[in-house]
Automatic annotation (TrEMBL):
Xref: Pfam families: O-FucT
Annotated InterPro entries: FucosylTrfase_pln, GDP-Fuc_O-FucTrfase, GT106_glycosyltransferase
Similarity comment text for this entry: Belongs to the glycosyltransferase GT106 family.
Gene Ontology BP annotations: fucose metabolic process
Subcellular localization(s) per the UniProt record: Membrane
Tree of life domain: Eukaryota
Its membrane topology: Single-pass type II membrane protein
Protein name (database record): O-fucosyltransferase family protein
Pathway note: Glycan metabolism
GO cellular component, one term: membrane
Molecular function GO labels: glycosyltransferase activity
Record keywords, A-Z: Carbohydrate metabolism, Fucose metabolism, Glycoprotein, Glycosyltransferase, Membrane, Transferase, Transmembrane, Transmembrane helix
Coiled-coil ranges (or none): none
Amino acid sequence: MRFHYQSHYHQPLKGEAIAGLFLLLFPVLLPCLFTPFTYASPSTFSEWNVIKPRHLSLLRSALEGKSSNGEQSDLWTPLADQGWRPCLESVNTPSALPQNSEGYLQVFLDGGLNQQRMGICDAVAVAKILNATLVIPYLEVNPVWQDSSSFMDIYDVDRLINVLKDDVSIVKELPDEFSWSTREYYATAIRATRIKRAPVHASANWYLENVLPVLQSEIQQLRCKVNFKALVFVPHIRALGDAIVHRLRYPPGETEALSSDYLRVTTDQNDKQRPQKFVVLHLRFDKDMAAHSACDFGGGKAEKLALAKYRQTIWGGRVLNSQFTDEELRSQGRCPLTPEEIGLLLAALGFDNSTRLYLASHKVYGGEARISTLRELFPLMENKKSLASSEERARIKGKASLLAAVDYYVGMHSDIFVSASPGNMHNALVGHRTFENMKTIRPNMALLGQLFLNKNITWLEFRQAVAEGHQNRQGQLKLRKPKQSIYTYPAPDCMCRA
């Protein structure tokens, strides 16, 4: 994330102060150190061989379980009122917003959809601190996804400007006199108006005097307002998301073909049909994550060699094989859950083969072969491709940010959200659903790692351990600790006691 600032009055910018702010916010603003590379093609076809189940005894027991009426299960019971409400009042009253800003603030954001989302919130906060007019942020082209989607392709700009009009001045583009200030201009050299780092050897007092004042509660509230109220996806993403949610709630008959006309389906038929509940599963099992974890996922020598080559090619030796054994990594909860393992977790929690499951994910490492056991456990598993026609998906095809935006939208409209492994989508949706008091199951990675290492565990023992280990991991509100992000833990900064 980079800030560029143009002053109306050509006064010297207090670069040290702003740089100090940036440095202090760096842990929040910094995108994930390693960007997902899930579209990277496999180095050899051999690593895509059919993967045998690693927990065959548990899988057989789970598959033998009889279908039950999931609607009656406590799993589907919404979260009880936890005594907190969204609290997003304007930081300023309309009359308190200064009439004249000190200049324009340009922001260039890299990373994926959710990293950029957090950067947008912080950019609004910085503009507020500086009394600057924020130019709609520029989204960098991700070098891996090659997604050139602009801010206006993803978010409803007019809503953003309107919701925040009493807090921060926002414009869609710079005035003509600043037309020279482009991404290319700043890429060619270090410019005086580019703010990047704090002064070398800055004292503790410097930070206390220049940075601490800007981190007060009103700025946190503004971030909350941007994230939970002002940032809304553009209409065509919401329309496609609504269509997918509709089809999950009211599955079409076997003879009904998906087409663009389905977006305009009437509600007459739905009035006679009881809406079904569904789970959104964010299956974050891509090649990037598998390689970075240094865990063994049962693909044999070919897979190990492919992941080692990937680590060297992508990170150039910056990520080495772990010093820990696979058993140690798993017992510490540091191995991503495979599709088979997340399927066993869901089955142990009480979901059965009548559960409607929406798979929110980019390409899974190992392809359909890796997902086969999950699909065997949950035959009613759907995704964007199965629920929307090619015509409906045309505007998001090949656009990683737009694809992720649709998944985010569907995730926010599901009865339950489950993320297979921690990550940016996990953090964003956990926070957003906490804000709305919606059920979200967070896997206990350390517990599951230890359970899956026990090859003699029975299905009954596994189910009991899973149930006990996830009693307080279904969306119960937790207050943010000092170093935690408000985007994941919105209380108490973004919420008030009822």
